[in-house]
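Saturday, quiet lab. Running sequence design on the structure tokens for the scaffold JK sent over.
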């Protein structure tokens, strides 16, 4: 279990996550520009969001691995912060494509909802390591434990699902297999991190 508690392990997993997502986003971008039906500019723009987030996760992973971000409470807060940023960034770059495929009102509505959710997540990330301890910290702690536990279970289900599907082995399948494993390692690290005595004290548990 110590493997999952090491900051270096989480850092490497985050780096791999960033690299895989970056490759996937760039491959999607290449696909847009090489499509037989012509280039759909809105689809190309939609690829920018995943590229930005992949780079941010990669840089975060490097910082964790090298010890630039070493306090467990800060690692947790930054990870949650990236989730909030992801919600906003992806929604913004998907707006144009969503307008073309689903209509303006639905796309704008989805954007507003995503921005609100993203801002809430960013606010939560700020509360995690603000140095204050109150009842809201306890609520956030409980919610995060539940979310990371559910995410870890879903990662296992995704991995087993790919194996059961019996799809021919290729680079795409390898990526699909690796992502749940990497996500599982990150989820377990964050889950164990929440039960760290220093983190529990910081979050009033």
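Result came back. Writing it out in full:
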């Amino acid at each position: 279990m110590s493997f999952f508690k090491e900051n270096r392990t989480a850092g490497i997993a985050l780096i791999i996550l960033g690299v895989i997502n970056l490759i996937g986003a760039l491959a999607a971008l290449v696909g847009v520009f090489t499509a037989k039906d012509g280039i759909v500019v809105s689809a190309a723009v939609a690829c920018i969001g995943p590229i930005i987030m992949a780079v941010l996760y990669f840089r975060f992973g490097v910082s964790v691995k090298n010890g630039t971000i070493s306090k467990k409470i800060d690692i947790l807060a930054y990870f949650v912060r990236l989730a909030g940023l992801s919600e906003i960034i992806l929604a913004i770059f998907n707006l144009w494509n969503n307008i073309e495929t689903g209509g303006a009102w639905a796309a704008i509505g989805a954007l507003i909802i995503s921005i609100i959710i993203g801002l809430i997540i960013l606010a939560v990330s700020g509360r995690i390591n603000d140095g204050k301890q109150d009842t809201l910290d306890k609520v956030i702690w409980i919610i995060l434990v539940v979310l990371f536990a559910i995410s870890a279970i879903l990662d296992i289900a995704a991995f087993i699902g790919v194996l059961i599907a019996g799809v021919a082995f290729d680079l795409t399948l390898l990526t699909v297999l690796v992502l749940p494993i990497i996500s599982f390692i990150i989820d377990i690290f964050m889950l164990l991190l929440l039960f760290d005595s220093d983190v529990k004290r910081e979050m009033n548990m």
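Notes for JK: The chain has nine helices and no strands. The chain has a mean pLDDT of 86. Ask whether to fix the surface positions before the next round.
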